[in-house]
Amino acid sequence: MSGVAANALQKRLLHDGLPVRRLWLATHAWMFLPAAALALSQPVPQSPAFWRDAAVAGALDALGNLAMVAALRSTDLSVFGPLNALRPLLALAFGWVFLGEHPTPIGLAGVGITATGAAWLLGDKTPNAARPEPRRMASIVGLRMAGLALSSAGAVFLKRAADSGGVGWTVGIWVAMGGVLLAAVGPVGRALSGRASEGQGRLRESMPSAPKTPRSPGHGGIAFHAGLFLAMQWATVVVFRGTLLAYSFVFFQLGMVLQVVVGRVVFGEPAFGRRLAASLVMAAGAGLVLWRG
């Protein structure tokens, strides 16, 4: 639920003219104090491997979030969310290689069914769907896949950190490291958010259906996004500790039916029947994993 709400709010904030990097910098700033409180409520981890793994996870996730939310600007919400179903395949590969995780045959079938639903969405040819110009398509696809790959790789380190240092400190270091990285990669962040420096000014790329004079998003929306994202990250780390990495990402797809509905109701996105059916296929895969994974 929090992931669906966070994606919808991200799209709204981007539509209002907030640059991607500024969104994530402000989000990490709002998350810092509550995340620090959560960390300090638990014993300090003693394993050096924990600090390395948590820091690497924070860095990879920060870059992945920049890339994926930059892609969200030019993608319908009801396609963007369900396409996360490609993550279980990436997580399956990373978990197999780096964590020695091996799903059961039924669990593997559930992962495959979930990915089939994503492939159905990839074939969406709806004329009215939010779609960039052909010359930018490769860039958008590259951002989306880079974001998925970075976040899936980061999940390996996040799971290892949670196993050795607990949930509170893992989330705390993840928030702090992500904020530091976002502050340090200004030029990269501006490029990913569609803003490049030119002399003393900036070139602004227009967003699909964005107003000519963007509204300045209030702090309330960003603070709410930070709360949603912190809750989602906490829940994600808890789930990582309790099951295989690939299964975790399959379970997250259970909320994608709601994301398609939100895309239709809030943003008026097309092809509701097709996208809902694809999301139900993903939910069936998740159900199979829950049943006998």
Short précis:
The protein is mostly helical and 293 residues long. It has helices spanning 2-15, 20-40, 48-72, 77-80, 87-99, 105-122, 134-165, 167-184, 186-192, 219-242, 245-252, 256-267, 272-292; strands spanning 195-198, 201-204.
Molecular structure report:
There is one protein chain. The protein has 293 residues and is mostly helical. Helix content is 74%, strand content 3%. The chain has 13 helices and 2 strands; from the N terminus they run αααααααααββαααα. It has helices spanning 2-15, 20-40, 48-72, 77-80, 87-99, 105-122, 134-165, 167-184, 186-192, 219-242, 245-252, 256-267, 272-292, and strands spanning 195-198, 201-204. Strands 1-2 form a two-stranded antiparallel ribbon. α2 (20-40) crosses α10. The two termini are 23 Å apart.
Keywords:
mainly alpha; 13 helices
- Distance between the first and last residues' Cα: 23 Å
On the 0-100 scale, what is the average pLDDT?
78
Spatial strand order of the main sheet: 1-2
H and E order: HHHHHHHHHEEHHHH
Number of strands: 2
Pairing-aware structural class of the strands and helices? mainly alpha
Describe the sheet with the most strands: 2 strands, antiparallel
Q: So how many helices? A: 13
Q: Which descriptor suits the 3D outline?
A: globular
**What is the helix content?**
over 70%
Q: What is the C-alpha radius of gyration, as a whole number of Å?
A: 19 Å
In what range is the share of β-strand residues?
Answer: under 5%
Low-confidence stretches: 195-215
Strand and helix map with partners:
Layout: H1 2-15, H2 20-40, H3 48-72, H4 77-80, H5 87-99, H6 105-122, H7 134-165, H8 167-184, H9 186-192, E1 195-198, E2 201-204, H10 219-242, H11 245-252, H12 256-267, H13 272-292
Antiparallel strand pairs: 1-2
